[in-house]
Amino acid sequence: MLQWFGKKPYLWFILPGFILYSIFVIYPIFSAAQLSLFHSNGFGAKVFVGFDNYIELFTNSELKRQFLNALKNNVILVVLNVGLLIPVQLYFAYVIYTRVKGYRIFQTMIFAPQFITTSVIVFLATLVFDQNIGIFNELLNIIGLGEYARNWLGIPGYEVITLFIINAWAGVGFSMIYFVAAMKMLSDEVMEASYLDGAGYWRRFFSVIIPQIRSSIVNIAMISYIAAMTLFDFSYLLGGVSGGINNSMDVMTLFFYRITFGTNGAMGGSVSTNSVGMGTTIACVMFAIIFVVALIQLRLTYKEEN
Amino acid sequence: MADIKKLYVTKLILWIYSSFTILILGYLIWNSFRTKQDVLSNTLGWPKSFTLDSYIKIFRDEHFGINIWNSVFILIMTILIIVALASMVAYGLGRYSFKFKQGVMLYFLVGLMFPVQLGVVPVFLIIKKLGLINSPWSVILVLSAGISMAVLMLSNFFAGLPNALAESARIDGAGEWKVFYRIMFPLASPVIVSLCIVLSVNIWNQFFLPLIMLQDDSVKTIPLAVIKYTSNILLNMDKALATSVMATIPVLILFFIFSERIISGVASGSVKE
């Protein structure tokens, strides 16, 4: 046995990582799929129930309502992130790429919030936009617009927009840096040639830069799609376990968290004895939704390219 | 390029963004030296007095130092384990050829496809069985297992190294292991530095996993300790401010000092694919 290993030195290199990775990344995926077929809370007896958990998720009116509401909020976040934030990131990236005066400062400042942890970001938002202690309302009072003062972090009907704005302020830098890096990989000659041909600043952005970094844009779109579908921190920190009043800030991951590790008894007894079964069911459905859309998206882009 | 001077609106937007960030951080620091009553009732007024009480309180009474240590410990251990495991795996995959190599590579990459939430319940059950709930090792082990990105970055690097170096060392009698850690691993240090930067940002800001695994106050990381106070601002405004400053400012100072290096590290990590 030892000799067999000795002849295959790569096994020694691969094995430690392989074991840890298999236990904590690969095995849990299969285990989650399997657990979703049981009625279980992780402590007592596991009862095999087939697809009953899946059926319950889509027939129990309260579960279904919460799930679809959370999914809706995730979809809004995806649309805003991909449709609004990515263009802004591209625009900032281009401005930095062209070394507009002060670009180092902009780059540093826009990237800085990456180093502020999410709980502090939400606290900072509270300091500015809270109804009672926020400076924004104080400023409105001072300039005589006090009648508009309100709780800016929970405007009824716009809670998801609030989530998006906080997420955008904190997250704009990361993908922007990716785009800057992608632009720097392009050859200077093409840029110079188009400049000499008389293409203006924005013309070069739309006709020369964007087409050439298409694959980077698709990658980032995919990453930010997955990030928006699995957003948790801001929703939890702003809205608590229930995701705000009437689940207005709820997202799928928070719904999953509430059912699995949940603290409030809003769901009644039937679910709490099935926290693990229903939790993994939600996780699997979530993954299926993310995966299928990502596959279609990938398929379409590669088809177009060929 | 001559025509970039005209971007007044763009520059204005960027200046507003940058100054907003600076102002809000300044406001945070400023308030952390005021008393709780002063911040709550005299929000925009000139403070009656400045005090270090909030900081004394969080370190002496609330033992916030322990939370800082927990975050640092988790960060360092996780990075050490990921770098060790991933560079070994990447070396094995990048430098040797064997049957099923493509399959093994794919196996290591597949982890990138799955959101954390999918496997977190089984992971929680395993950690519980190991008795590691409320131990920093729960978070360290689970985060250290996420080596997919690191393996991808490093295996491309190792595969691209010339053979001559390893061969000459082998002729001198160095074993496989020695070739790896004496010659090949040091060569990878630029890639490893980039990797560590990307990993640090990610590990330092972890919220979901510690939230589930670490429930005792004494094992909480910085982000979790902060929400102990921010969740009830009227009661804990002073502590919320002081812990937020401690959670944010030292890291940001480090970032501002090394910003060029960090940003280029993040950028090079992205184009390595």
Keywords:
heterodimer, A: mainly alpha, MetI-like fold, globular, B: 273 residues, mainly alpha, 15 helices
In brief:
The complex is a heterodimer of chains A (306) and B (273). With 306 residues, chain A is mostly helical.
Q: In words, what does this structure look like?
A:
- The complex is a heterodimer of chains A (306) and B (273).
- With 306 residues, chain A is an all-alpha fold.
- Chain A has a single domain, classed as Orthogonal Bundle (MetI-like fold), CATH 1.10.3720.
- Chain A contains 15 helices and two strands.
- A two-stranded antiparallel ribbon of chain A has the order 1-2.
- In chain A, helix 3 crosses helix 4, helix 4 packs across helix 13 and helix 11 packs antiparallel against helix 15.
- Chain A is globular, with a radius of gyration of 24 Å.
- The N and C termini of chain A lie far apart (49 Å).
- Chain B is mostly helical and 273 residues long.
- Chain B has a single domain, classed as MetI-like fold, CATH 1.10.3720.
- The longest helix of chain B is centred in the N-terminal third of the chain and has 32 residues.
- The two termini of chain B are 30 Å apart.
- Chains A and B meet through helix 2, helix 4, helix 5, helix 6 and helix 7 of A and helix 1, helix 4, helix 5, helix 6 and helix 7 of B.
- Chain A: It is a multi-pass membrane protein.
- Chain A: Belongs to the binding-protein-dependent transport system permease family.
How many β strands of chain B by DSSP? 0
Instruction: Tell me the quaternary state.
Output: heterodimer
The greatest interface here is: A-B, 92 and 97 residues
The number of domains of chain A: 1
Helical amount of chain B? over 70%
For the record, what is the CATH homologous superfamily label of chain A? MetI-like
Relative strand content of chain A: under 5%
Number of helices of chain B: 15
Membrane topology (chain B): Multi-pass membrane protein
Family (chain B): Belongs to the binding-protein-dependent transport system permease family.
Main location (chain B): membrane
InterPro entries (chain B): MetI-like, MetI-like_sf
